[in-house]
Amino acid sequence: MDNQFNPYSSDFADPSMGTPSSEGNQLIDFKRVLYKVIKFWYIIVITSLIALSSAYIINRYSTRIYPVTASIMIKENQEEVGAKFLYNNAISDPYRNFYNEMYVIKSFPLIRSAIEELNFEVAYYREGEIKSSEYYNPNFPVEVKPEDGSQLPYGKSAGITFLNQKQFKLSNLSITSDDNEVRTEKIFQFGELVPINGHKVIFNNNGAIAEGDLDKYFVLRFDDPESITGQYQSKLTAKWAEQGSSVLNLSLNGPEPRKEIDFLTTFIAKYQKLDIDRKNQTASQTIQFIDDQLNGISDTLQFYEQKLMEFKKDNVVTNMDGEAVRIYENLREIEEAAVQYTVQEQYYDYLRKFLRNPDNAMEQVVTPQSVGIEDQVIAEMLGKLLKLDVEIKRFQQKEKIANPVLENKKQEMQALRTNILSSIKTLKETRGIMQKSVKRQQQILEEQLKLLPGLQQDFINIKRDYSFREGLYTFLMQKRAEAAISKASTTSDIRTINPPKLAGGPITPKTSQNYLIFLVIGLVIPISFFIVLELFNNKIQSKEDIERATSIQVIGGIGHKKLQDNLVVFRKPRSAVAESFRALRSNLNFYTEGKEKKIFLVTSSISGEGKTFTTINLATVLALSGRPTLLIGADMRRPKIFDDFKLHNEFGLSNLLSGQAELQEVVQKTEVDNLDLLSAGPIPPNPSELLMKDIMKNSLDKAFKTYDFIIIDSPPIALVTDAFVLSKFADHTLFMVRQDYTPKEAVVAANELYTKGKIKNLSILFNDIKKAGPGYGYGYGYGYGYGYGYGKEKNGHGYYQEG
User: Fold this and answer.
1) How many CB atoms sit inside 10 A of residue 22's CB?
2) Helix-helix angle 98-105:376-398, to 10 degrees
3) Helices (H), 537-575
């Protein structure tokens, strides 16, 4: 008997491994995954090459997008109360609300004006083998225009080839004829009307077409300006250079950098023009206000001028004595004051109407200073009103929900409007009193004038009427001239700091990033596949898997056999598998130390785990040690162990347990020395009941008189209860676990039986070990190569174990 504890398999039978591993909840063995990655490295390489090839194709054929940037500075205005709050220049320098500039820049009309000026609705494309790219040439001599009263066929396209300086050919042309759309090819002359989809288009040649553009095929596409404007509106970005700065950075991205540079250049010019027009709006309104007043007095002034000339013509002598001169001078002074009152009254009427209309924008109001009225009270109140208007707009841009502060500001603004209207009413009443005073003085002077001779009296009356209107006309003409000068000298507050330019290389595709991303994808996909396989693999792969699932000790490991014959130990005693059974024999002695005669039960969870193979070879290695051994085939439902020994199953255990025969009558000799076989015998109808009879125990006791070892091959415990009945006779039970075959749940179930005491003296034998490496364990014995001085066998493919 070999009682040595083999170091090869002592790792399995370490008593310190009696409890499950702390990694019992680990679903993935990353060492095993890493081993598969290394083993199947060529799959990683193939997927990585495919991923890098995909990245190359994307980088090669993706449209390159370039960044274009520009910087502009917006002149600041000082926020002051009073007239200066409204205007630095009283007429043409209105207050600017910087919070509105972002919205002005992104406004649809402003962007569309630039699009229309650049004629972006007509685009040329060059066709490639895989993709088409835009051909942009701002100096392209061919101009495409719709017929008067028509528009371009937006959404349509056609192929165009410039044949020479006078002719061009349209291919794949859509011509609507009799309500049918026809695709055709035709040659046209420049300047000729071309019917395209019901629209008539004119192609004008405004210069010489370059030789490189002749006989080249282009795709001519007509895009809707509304759509193009929307695209530029979404991709144009404007950001302040820094907090509190008046420098604005503009940027947009596009596939054709020259086109985007031209757009930004034109866009800035349009923005500057809009700024000038907006500033001139106040001057224009002032001029309009004055013109309205001039129109009212122009005819009257001409009437009195004509009347004065007729008076001088009819009356040669126009000298007046001292009293007449005194009266005339006094009347002229009083009428000059009346001119001021008249202008003020007209302005207050305008201001009252303006404030009562809530649709009027406050920045469009005509200020008192612009018409020569010095009224600090009204000017300061208007300044406060405009300041409140700016604050309300700031709140509305920041806050999209109701805000108590915003409501307070609105109420304050409404109250201020009411106060201004009330002040205007009071001022009109005050001016009315003063006008009455002026009229009384006029009446007094007119009474004095009546005392003069009739001729002098008539002359003074005519000259007085003429002088009053002439003074009013002259005053308004002076203010109009000032407004016109201010308008003519207005400059834009928008100044270009950095003109539009290309800001570096293409931002998409990001070639390096694409290569990196696809390389990662090429690595992640196969690795993830290995991880998923590991995650969903519920079979026992290694000793570590067993230790995670159970507290039952692992007694040893058996390598993969290459022979079809199950008698490996007998046929190949120098093989690694035979050595594994010798190690198992030593470990069993360790578990059953102190007993001379022993019964070993071999069972499993399901069929196919090598139960019969293990029983035969364990019995063989025990018999070869010189100890008489009896092998009992207790699986009476599927008897087959006799086939491996070339024996019969005409009688056996079923005959013995049913009382039909004696032990010595059913035992058969095998070709292995010291090894006898008690096969299962004919299949009985009640195997479990037979095993529970006392005759089973008595038969085992009787067998011990002849044999030192009894090895029992039992049915799987997951299918029938025979193993539970037989386990009470066994000194030690081997539970078979086959690599890559036994479900993990079966080991967990066996652990539950063991912990509840249903099966005692139980250990696990790890069978059919084929896989080795990280995550599978090392030195467990493999079917190809092992030797303690026995030599090595060639690696090869064999058969799976039967049982």
Assistant:
1) 9
2) 50
3) 543-549, 568-571
Angle at the Cα of 315 from the Cα atoms of 311 and 316, rounded to 5 degrees: 125
Lowest-confidence segment of 86-100, 129-143, 457-471, 602-616 by average pLDDT: 86-100
Report which of 587, 760, 622, 535 is spatially closest to residue 1, judged by C-alpha positions: 622
> In this structure, are strands 142-146 and 66-74 parallel, antiparallel, or unpaired?
unpaired
Contact 675, 711 (CB under 8 A): no
Closest to 616 in 3D by CA, of 654, 585, 642: 642
Amino acid (1-letter code) at residue 534: E
Domains of the chain, each with CATH number or no CATH: 44-62+509-536 (no CATH), 122-223 (no CATH), 282-495 (no CATH), 539-769 (3.40.50.300)
The H or E element spanning position 664 is helix 663-666
What's residue 803's pLDDT? 38
Contacts 24+ apart (CB under 8 A), 46-54: 47/522, 47/523, 47/525, 47/526, 48/519, 48/522, 48/523, 49/522, 50/522, 51/518, 51/519, 51/521, 51/522, 51/525, 52/515, 52/518, 52/519, 52/522, 54/518
- Give which of 788, 660, 637 is closest to 714, Cα–Cα: 637
Strands (E) in 316-430, as ranges, are: none
**What are the tens digits of pLDDT across the range 157-171?**
888 899 998 899 888
pLDDT for 182: 54
Contact 95, 85 (CB under 8 A): yes
The sign of the CA dihedral 700, 706, 709, 714 is negative
